[in-house]
Write a structure and sequence with these properties.
heterodimer; A: mainly alpha; 3 domains; three-stranded antiparallel sheet; two-stranded antiparallel sheet; 24 helices; 7 strands; 69% helix; 5% strand; B: alpha/beta; Rossmann fold; five-stranded parallel sheet; two-stranded antiparallel ribbon
């Protein structure tokens, strides 16, 4: 049943309102210390307990800040895409559940809100369930998110049993009594559970499936806000409550982070589906965040608190910037999808003329994702690089080995990230349309553009004025003393200064210099051209042939082909070139068909055998229930007998 | 010795320049700097291409006389056409000429471009370059030597 404008406005308005509430609550928690709320009657036995500290406040504020533009955007989007009532109801619920997760103050509340969030997101992923691809993505997501939940459930049960209480406060107070075995178990289980939510390798497989198939506002919420919860879990449980951890915790985080970042960006740079590209970019960015967290933990465990504080600040900034540019990226991709019905970059193109607003928005997002100066991701990535380069290792073999390797992985990630984003923007939006659908594209309505403009403003603030975030990040950093040891982090002023280190940088002044240079160049060229004759308009130079066609352009596939060739062993593409000759002469080619299939090699190697084994086992178990009621009754009686015999 | 000092000591090593020939074609009006040329192979055997490449190489260094080969006709002051005009290249040649801003010069290099040469009257041949567009300078030879090409370019650049 298609929705009316009123229903869509109510849903979007509620989403945005939850977002505003989240931002307000989050900011007040960051600056005003922790807030407690205990509701005993809401949940039997344990009760519901909220405890919002500065760290949770940052994540609540970030989630709220994502929800506001998404809510505004979703009003017209839902109407254009004929959303049913169900996703309209679930959208604000999903945001509310995500706001509850970082606010949870006890194990029970945390698990409850985590599961609410997972269930709401699953329902939203399935909102276009009439398409087979959506159902398959939904099944994949459901299994992985539930396995992740089981892992977290186990970890938190071990934690609360060892810590002697349900509330996080109680556990934190008794953390000294937790044995190292329990710590290790909790760390590994939470790493698996939270890592799968954050999309870390090898538990990333749901991301490139669920993100593209979910409606775009939902993709934006999932990618920019929900995956953050995985990172929040790692910081809250492993670093804040259980920390400071042993050396190998930091090492493990760094390795998982670096591998995820490189693999994610590699897949993004060869992806031809716009939303799959953005989804893999999420794995990349969460990998970078985890790398920064790992570096902070490792450096802190070796006593290099100042550098650890820089790495931790980098992690927090990267989370915020990723939220901003990924919201914008998915919303812009949603506008394209709504206008053309296409996600395939090889069929898009020419949108810069037809959708100028959306093109500018996606450009801002792509600039942010590529980590270049004036992009949202630049400041965080610069800080991370500085912390990796400047970690003095004093004959420590592990640090001397890990830090240069991480710099290498980081550099490779950033470089490939630029290639991926140039591809997404250049092939998707510039040049000529490659299909009639792209040619008929129309600009998104004003309310959708307004939503995107809000996210773009957040990108601009992160890019040129991180000074506004300085005080908040300082409070959050101080609330995680197990990493950085309460050392003063970098000063986020007009100049970014690193305490004790030589590096400094000013994104605001870089932006100002660039604007002045552009204005100067424009003015000078105008002044120089004042005596020139009027420019003549002539057809485009087509290398002597009659005219250019869209078939002559780079496609996403051809742009990524050299990369695909270089990383052939990692990507293992299945390419097939078929040449058909004319019947008269085999020297003349009638047509050439090029087909390339890029399956995720990790998914292929790791998941296929598991799925296969489970299917075989399920077939075997299935023989036991052929559908006969009598047999089932017999099972019941047999079970009862066994229980009676045992409990005799 | 630093490499800059070495450059100063060695100086230029190129074929010695002859006396500047008399101007046969004026440089396009408004061209005050060097002459930018777009090269079009209309159906050449590539002999002339080799000689043009040699003329612009460091040995003969045609650029010291103010001529330069550019990648796009939009950047050019003239055309450097080689080879007999074949049917396949007839229209592209006209399109390229149209893309060169006026005023412009057309320089035909080699016997084929000037009068059809060995391929005149061939079945796929339209004619010489002069048959399809006005030619300002002709460089005879099959192929012309780099010195001949440079001499012809200097009649236009005036250096």
């Amino acid at each position: 049943m298609p929705c009316s404008l009123g229903a869509a406005a109510l849903s979007g308005g509620l989403t945005a309102a939850f977002g505003i509430v989240g931002v307000t609550l989050g900011l007040s928690a960051i600056f005003g210390g922790s807030r407690d709320l205990q509701i005993d009657w809401l949940l039997p036995l344990a009760g519901v307990r909220f405890d919002l500290g500065p760290l949770g406040g940052l994540f609540v504020a970030a989630t709220g800040a994502v929800a506001v533009p998404v809510g505004i955007y979703s009003v017209r989007y839902a109407q254009k895409e004929h959303w049913a009532r169900f996703p309209l109801v679930m959208l604000p619920l999903f945001v509310a559940a995500m706001l509850l997760v970082p606010a949870a103050g006890s194990v029970t509340t945390f698990l409850l809100s985590w599961e609410l969030m997972a269930a709401a997101s699953l329902a939203l992923v399935l909102s276009e369930h009439h398409r087979g691809a959506v159902r398959s993505a939904g099944a994949f997501y459901a299994v992985m998110t539930q396995l992740g939940f089981a892992s977290i459930l186990l970890a938190l049960m071990v934690l609360s049993a060892a810590g002697g209480g349900d509330a996080f406060d109680t556990i934190a107070a008794h953390v000294g009594g937790i044995s190292s075995g329990a710590r290790t178990a909790v760390f590994l289980l939470t790493l698996a559970g939270f890592g799968s939510k954050a999309g870390l390798l090898p538990l990333h497989a749901w991301l490139p499936r669920a993100h593209p198939e979910a409606p775009s506002p939902v993709s934006a919420l999932m990618s920019a806000a929900m995956v953050n919860m995985g990172i929040y879990g790692i910081i809250r449980i492993d670093l804040q409550i259980l920390g400071p951890g042993p050396h190998w915790w930091g090492l493990t985080l760094m390795i998982f982070g670096a591998v995820s970042a490189v693999f994610g960006v590699l897949q993004a740079s060869v992806a031809t589906d716009l939303k799959t590209l953005l989804a893999y970019s999420t794995t990349e960015n969460m990998g970078l965040v985890t790398l920064a967290l790992g570096a902070a933990t490792l450096l802190s465990s070796y006593g290099a608190q100042q550098v650890a504080a820089i790495a931790m600040t980098a992690a927090l900034l990267l989370i915020l910037s990723h939220g901003a540019f990924k919201t914008l990226g998915f919303l812009a991709a949603g506008s394209v999808l709504a206008a053309t019905g296409l996600r395939d970059l090889d069929k898009l193109g020419g949108l810069a003329r037809r959708m100028p607003g959306t093109t500018v928005m996606f450009g801002i997002a792509a600039l942010g994702a590529s980590g270049l100066p004036l992009g949202a991701g630049f400041v965080g990535e610069w800080l991370l690089l500085q912390s990796l380069i400047h970690s003095a290792h004093d004959n420590n073999t592990l640090l001397a080995l890990m830090m240069p390797l991480s710099v290498g992985a980081f550099a490779l990630t950033t470089g490939l990230g630029i290639a991926a984003m140039v591809k997404a923007f250049g092939v998707g939006f510039l040049a000529r349309p490659r299909s009639p659908a792209a040619e008929a594209a129309r600009e998104a309505p004003a309310s959708m553009l307004t939503g995107m403009a809000l996210a773009a403003a957040a990108c601009a603030v992160l890019a040129v004025a991180p000074v506004l975030l300085g005080p908040a990040l300082k409070h959050v950093l101080a609330s995680v003393p197990t990493v950085g040891g309460g050392a003063a982090g970098p000063t986020l002023g007009t100049y970014l200064r690193l305490p004790g280190l030589a590096g400094s940088m000013s994104p605001g002044l870089i932006a100002a210099a660039l604007v002045i240079a552009v204005l100067l160049a424009l003015g000078l060229s105008r002044w120089g051209a004042r005596h020139r004759p009027v420019a003549a308009v002539v057809p485009l130079w087509a290398c002597g042939s009659e005219s250019l066609s869209s078939r002559m352009q780079y496609t996403a596939t051809s742009f990524a082909e050299p990369l695909q060739r270089v990383f052939d062993n990692v990507l293992q593409p299945d390419t097939d070139v078929e040449v058909t000759h004319f019947a008269e002469s085999r020297y003349l080619v009638e047509k050439v068909t090029y087909r390339t299939l890029l399956a995720d090699p990790v998914e292929h190697r790791l998941y296929t055998p598991v799925v296969h084994a489970v299917t075989t086992w399920a077939h075997w178990v299935r023989r036991a229930h052929p559908g006969s009621v009598h047999l089932y009754l017999a099972y019941g009686v047999l079970g009862l007998l066994i229980v009676l015999v045992i409990a005799r | 010795m630093t490499w800059i000092g070495k450059i100063g000591r060695v100086g230029r090593i190129v074929e010695p320049a002859d006396e500047a020939p008399d101007a046969t074609a004026a440089p396009p009006t408004g061209v005050t700097g060097s002459l930018q040329l777009r090269h079009v192979d209309c159906g050449s055997c590539n002999g002339c291409e080799l000689e043009i490449a040699a003329a612009f190489s460091s040995v003969y260094d045609a650029e010291r006389f103010g001529a330069r080969v550019v990648a796009s006709p939009r950047h050019a002051d003239g055309l450097l056409a080689t080879g007999v005009v074949t049917r396949n290249m007839h229209q592209p040649l006209l399109n390229t000429l149209k893309s060169v801003p006026e005023p412009r010069v057309v320089i035909a290099v080699g016997d084929c471009a000037c009068n059809g040469g060995a391929f005149a009257q061939g079945y796929g041949v339209v004619g010489s370059v002069a048959d399809v567009m006005p030619v300002d300078v002709e460089v005879p030879g099959c192929p012309p030597t780099p010195q001949q090409i440079i001499a012809a370019l200097r009649t236009v650049t005036g250096r």
